[in-house]
Write a structure and sequence with these properties.
single chain, mainly alpha, two-stranded antiparallel sheet, 8% strand
Length: 106
Protein backbone atom coordinates (compact mmCIF):
# COMPACT_ATOMS: atom_id res chain seq x y z
CA UNK A 1 0.00 0.00 0.00
CA UNK A 2 1.23 3.39 -0.90
CA UNK A 3 0.49 6.76 0.66
CA UNK A 4 -0.34 8.18 -2.77
CA UNK A 5 -3.41 5.94 -3.13
CA UNK A 6 -6.33 7.67 -1.53
CA UNK A 7 -9.96 6.79 -1.76
CA UNK A 8 -12.04 9.67 -3.10
CA UNK A 9 -14.93 10.85 -0.99
CA UNK A 10 -18.31 9.64 -2.24
CA UNK A 11 -20.35 12.14 -4.21
CA UNK A 12 -23.01 13.86 -2.20
CA UNK A 13 -26.47 13.04 -3.53
CA UNK A 14 -29.04 15.71 -3.89
CA UNK A 15 -31.93 15.37 -1.47
CA UNK A 16 -35.26 14.39 -2.97
CA UNK A 17 -37.97 17.03 -2.86
CA UNK A 18 -41.15 16.01 -1.03
CA UNK A 19 -44.17 17.61 -2.65
CA UNK A 20 -46.60 19.43 -0.36
CA UNK A 21 -50.37 19.46 -0.99
CA UNK A 22 -50.46 22.84 -2.79
CA UNK A 23 -47.41 22.09 -4.94
CA UNK A 24 -49.32 19.80 -7.30
CA UNK A 25 -51.78 22.56 -8.12
CA UNK A 26 -48.99 25.07 -8.85
CA UNK A 27 -47.18 22.51 -10.99
CA UNK A 28 -50.24 21.61 -13.04
CA UNK A 29 -51.15 25.25 -13.58
CA UNK A 30 -47.62 25.98 -14.79
CA UNK A 31 -47.74 22.99 -17.16
CA UNK A 32 -51.11 24.00 -18.60
CA UNK A 33 -49.97 27.62 -19.04
CA UNK A 34 -46.99 26.61 -21.19
CA UNK A 35 -48.05 25.04 -24.51
CA UNK A 36 -44.42 24.17 -25.37
CA UNK A 37 -44.51 21.37 -22.79
CA UNK A 38 -46.46 19.34 -25.34
CA UNK A 39 -44.40 20.45 -28.35
CA UNK A 40 -43.04 17.73 -30.66
CA UNK A 41 -39.75 19.68 -30.84
CA UNK A 42 -37.43 18.40 -28.12
CA UNK A 43 -35.63 21.73 -27.66
CA UNK A 44 -38.85 23.63 -27.06
CA UNK A 45 -40.04 20.98 -24.60
CA UNK A 46 -36.75 21.11 -22.69
CA UNK A 47 -36.84 24.90 -22.50
CA UNK A 48 -40.46 24.80 -21.33
CA UNK A 49 -39.61 22.43 -18.47
CA UNK A 50 -36.64 24.60 -17.48
CA UNK A 51 -38.94 27.64 -17.41
CA UNK A 52 -41.42 25.74 -15.24
CA UNK A 53 -38.64 24.65 -12.88
CA UNK A 54 -37.43 28.24 -12.56
CA UNK A 55 -40.96 29.50 -11.92
CA UNK A 56 -41.59 26.88 -9.25
CA UNK A 57 -38.21 27.48 -7.60
CA UNK A 58 -39.37 31.05 -6.99
CA UNK A 59 -42.41 29.57 -5.23
CA UNK A 60 -40.20 27.41 -3.01
CA UNK A 61 -40.58 24.13 -4.88
CA UNK A 62 -36.99 22.90 -5.14
CA UNK A 63 -37.58 19.91 -7.41
CA UNK A 64 -35.51 19.07 -10.49
CA UNK A 65 -36.97 19.12 -13.99
CA UNK A 66 -36.86 15.32 -13.98
CA UNK A 67 -38.72 15.25 -10.66
CA UNK A 68 -41.34 17.64 -12.01
CA UNK A 69 -41.90 15.58 -15.15
CA UNK A 70 -42.20 12.39 -13.09
CA UNK A 71 -44.67 14.07 -10.73
CA UNK A 72 -46.89 15.22 -13.61
CA UNK A 73 -46.78 11.71 -15.09
CA UNK A 74 -47.69 10.18 -11.73
CA UNK A 75 -50.62 12.60 -11.27
CA UNK A 76 -51.98 11.93 -14.74
CA UNK A 77 -51.60 8.16 -14.27
CA UNK A 78 -53.54 8.30 -10.99
CA UNK A 79 -56.25 10.42 -12.61
CA UNK A 80 -56.51 8.08 -15.61
CA UNK A 81 -56.73 5.06 -13.30
CA UNK A 82 -59.62 6.65 -11.38
CA UNK A 83 -61.45 7.43 -14.61
CA UNK A 84 -61.05 3.90 -16.00
CA UNK A 85 -62.30 2.41 -12.73
CA UNK A 86 -65.39 4.59 -12.97
CA UNK A 87 -64.63 6.50 -9.80
CA UNK A 88 -65.79 10.07 -9.52
CA UNK A 89 -62.65 12.15 -8.96
CA UNK A 90 -62.86 14.12 -5.73
CA UNK A 91 -60.68 16.99 -4.62
CA UNK A 92 -59.35 20.21 -6.08
CA UNK A 93 -60.16 20.63 -9.75
CA UNK A 94 -57.52 21.95 -12.16
CA UNK A 95 -58.99 23.94 -15.04
CA UNK A 96 -57.58 24.49 -18.52
CA UNK A 97 -57.81 27.73 -20.48
CA UNK A 98 -61.41 26.96 -21.48
CA UNK A 99 -62.54 26.54 -17.84
CA UNK A 100 -62.86 22.78 -18.25
CA UNK A 101 -61.86 20.63 -15.28
CA UNK A 102 -58.99 18.52 -16.61
CA UNK A 103 -57.59 17.05 -13.40
CA UNK A 104 -58.38 16.82 -9.71
CA UNK A 105 -55.90 16.74 -6.87
CA UNK A 106 -56.66 15.05 -3.59
Amino acid sequence: MSDSMTIPAPKKRRTRYCFRPGDDLLLLRAVLDDPDVFSPARGRRTNAWEDIRTLLHREGIRATTHGLRCRVQRLTDMFQKEITQGKQPAGTCVYDRNSVCVMTIK
